[in-house]
Write a structure and sequence with these properties.
heterodimer; A: 293 residues; 2 strands; B: 417 residues; alpha/beta; Rossmann fold; five-stranded parallel β-sheet; four-stranded parallel β-sheet; 14 helices; 43% helix
């Protein structure tokens, strides 16, 4: 039982990263119809930024947690203005290729300066202990990540459903033509929303720095799973991406724990789930079927 | 139109013909003992991926240092002064390694290929060397198949292998730290080999493998907590967690091992394959007390240190064992050519076989004739606590020297030259 709870907890912690990344992808896809392949690279930049801030300027983890998402969000907005919005009217494939190219450039720039070896980043001392839950203890940092990620997801959900900005964003996502007809400037919101999605990726990166290897390729493997998460949740569905993020984290942890005699299964379980979901609900668990045009 | 194409093709052919003659003409009049009148060394390794730090471009620098030292040593008596170094990136892909090796031997006139990390790529290059009858010194790969079922007359395995790692770390840790092991390995060829070698060494030393798990490779979630949490719950409780992960995955395992404070729970850590660059990226504090087997350590004695100082002035960093081994291998090849007076592969192989060598990398070294395993002293090393680290990169103390004859397995019966 203790083991099950520990594995569940760990699954939720992995899921927290998936959820934050998938949430950013979903917001961007909803608003811009852009599948942002560079999301993993921005996650990597978040972690690397935290490392560089600490090692070269002595900026602590807590400050990096605020600086990196804002900084990367602004970079994202600049990139959206400079490149991405020029291609949004074309086939989505163009932006997919653009962001793929961007990923390679960002990864190689970091490689050029810092090499491929992982860079050291220590857990902030306030969070380096463990929390005693009675039947088992758990690293404080993991508890913090889970709490923080849930708070961010709830915060985003609140903004989207309870504020005027959120209403406009949701309306522009779902019925852009109609929203325009009401005299709302949809285009105005595109750039900030893109920056916001990138900021979330950067946030996930900073959170990952103390517990994952910080290197230029850290986002490259992860992003593949995050795409699977987004597809399972339903492309563009905000709630779906978060739910699927945590869900996939759990499935992976349970798979590794209880199917360890079949390493092949635990290795591919995410994609097995994805295939089953797509057969059963082609638009994903929480996605809506495309209305016939 | 058709005529223009025809003329163009004809003139291209003519140019190639002339170029061919021109290239062959003057050189054939020079030194007949060396193909093309010169020696070309080829360094084929990973220059952008996971292994580019521990070998990569700095291995090329190490080989260039060997060339410079060879020229300085022999001066006008050198078999040739025309020694060049070619290099290519195999991206850790067997098919790329295969085509780059062919290109090196056939078109770049390479006499010897060096390095080649990643076992699957290393084995492909061994096949090419055999087919082309050209020399190949493998340094960066771990698989014992290079001197086992894939051995051949032109392939030498220079620095280390999975047997050396398992025998040193597995045996000593079982004797000194604890008998019960939990082994965590990446579930692909290298990890599976390592798991087998370690299990054998542990059992032979009177220990027991209580549990073992193949973690997904590549581990996309980067999370190993399921396995790490399982370790202390096994019965009997393992005293040692043996991790066979390498590079970034090793970093993830160690970070999370510390997060879950397994050392405080009585589970020690042993690492299958670790390079000095891994310790640098994890910091010694994260690994303090961890034992592993090293093929060479830069601060072991004065001779190593002098080489490390020169290497640092060239590259800005301290050498890994792979860098030192590349230097040594290039040097031993050049000396063999010097002694033979020719770069004819069969003659050079004859000169190398059975040769006993002592240099900056090889201590009590011997190039075994039976399987072309280059045996030498290995070292059981332990990561120092942060408080004992007195200068950058000085992360390890050598607990024990493992004599060459014990460090490596006896020649395998699977090897048919």
């Amino acid at each position: 039982m203790t083991g099950f709870l520990q594995n569940t907890f760990n699954g939720l912690v992995s899921g927290a990263f998936y959820a934050l990344l998938a949430l950013g992808l979903a917001v961007i896809f909803g608003m811009l119809r852009v599948v942002n392949f560079a999301h993993g690279a921005f996650y990597m930049l978040g972690a690397f930024g935290a490392y560089v801030l600490l090692s070269e300027a002595g900026v602590p983890f807590w400050a990096a947690l605020a600086i990196m998402p804002v900084g990367l969000g602004l970079l994202g907005m600049a990139l959206e203005r400079a490149f991405i919005h020029r291609l949004t009217r074309l086939d989505p494939l163009y932006n997919f290729l653009l962001t793929f190219g961007l990923t390679l450039i960002l990864q190689d720039l970091v490689k050029l300066r810092y090499g491929v070896q992982s860079s050291p980043y220590a857990t902030p001392s306030a969070l380096s202990g463990s929390v005693d839950f009675g039947i088992f203890d758990f690293p404080t940092y993991r508890v913090f990540i889970l709490g923080f990620a849930v708070a961010v997801c709830v915060g985003v959900w609140w903004v989207l459903t309870r504020t005027r900005i959120g209403m406009v964003v949701r309306a522009s996502t779902e019925r852009p033509e109609l929203t325009r007809a009401f005299g709302i400037n949809v285009g105005r919101w595109v750039t900030p929303v893109f920056g916001f999605g990138i900021g979330l990726a950067g946030l996930a990166g900073v959170l990952a720095a103390p517990m994952r290897a910080v290197n230029p390729l850290m986002g490259a493997d992860l992003i593949i799973v995050v795409f699977a998460v987004v597809v399972i949740g339903g492309l563009g569905s905000i709630f779906g991406s978060v739910a699927a993020g945590f869900g996939i984290g759990l499935v992976q942890a349970w798979g590794e724990a209880y199917l360890s005699q079949f390493p092949i299964v635990s290795q591919t379980i995410v994609f097995i789930v994805m295939a089953v979901v797509l057969l059963w609900r082609p638009a994903g668990l929480f996605g809506r079927e495309e209305a016939p045009a | 139109m058709r005529r223009t194409v025809g003329v163009a093709a004809a003139s291209a052919a003519a140019v190639m013909l002339v170029a061919g003659c021109g290239g062959g003409g003057p050189q054939s009049g020079g030194d007949e003992k060396l193909t093309g009148g010169k020696i070309v060394l080829g360094v084929l390794n990973d220059q952008s991926g996971a292994y580019s730090e521990l070998s990569g471009k700095n291995s090329v620098t190490a080989v260039e240092m060997a060339v410079a030292d060879f020229k300085a040593k022999h001066g006008d008596d050198a078999v040739t002064k025309d020694i060049t170094v070619e290099t290519a990136d195999h991206q850790n892909k067997p098919d790329v390694a295969n085509s780059k090796a062919q290109e090196m031997y056939d078109r770049k006139g390479v006499d010897l290929i060096l390095d080649v990390p990643t076992s699957s790529a290393a084995l492909k290059v061994a096949d090419v060397a055999k087919e082309k009858k050209k020399l190949y010194f493998n340094i960066g790969a771990a698989t014992t198949d290079l001197t086992g079922k894939s051995c051949n007359k032109y392939t030498f395995h220079y620095a280390y292998d999975t047997y050396m790692l398992a025998n040193g770390t597995g045996k000593t840790t079982t004797e000194q730290v604890g008998k019960n092991w939990y082994i965590l390995y990446p579930n692909y060829a290298f990890g599976q080999d390592m798991e087998k070698s370690f299990s054998a060494a542990i059992t032979a030393a009177g220990g027991k493998v209580v549990g073992k798990d193949g973690a997904p490779f590549p581990n996309t979630s980067g999370d190993f907590s399921t396995f790490l949490l399982k370790a202390p719950t096994l019965n009997p409780k393992p005293e040692v967690l043996g991790t066979m992960q390498a590079g970034a995955e090793l970093v993830n395992v160690v970070k999370q091992y510390n997060e879950f404070k397994l050392r405080d729970k009585g589970v020690g850590l042993a690492v299958g394959l670790m390079f000095i660059t891994d310790i640098h990226s994890l910091t010694p504090a994260a690994l303090a007390g961890t034992t592993y087997t090293d093929a060479w350590y830069w601060n072991f004695d004065q001779q190593n240190r002098e080489f490390a100082d020169r290497f640092q002035s060239e590259t800005g960093t301290r050498p890994s064992f792979a860098h030192a081994a590349n230097y040594s291998a290039a040097m031993q090849y050049l000396e063999a050519v010097q002694a033979a007076g020719t770069d004819d592969a069969d003659t050079v192989v004859k000169g190398l076989e059975g040769k006993e060598v002592n240099d900056v990398f090889l201590r009590n070294g011997k190039i075994r004739a039976e399987d072309h395993r280059v045996i030498h002293d290995a070292y059981l090393a332990q990561v120092k606590p942060q408080s004992e680290v007195s200068e950058p990169w000085d992360y390890v103390k050598v607990l024990k020297t493992i004599p060459a004859a014990e460090a490596f397995a006896a020649p395998s019966s699977a090897c048919k030259m």
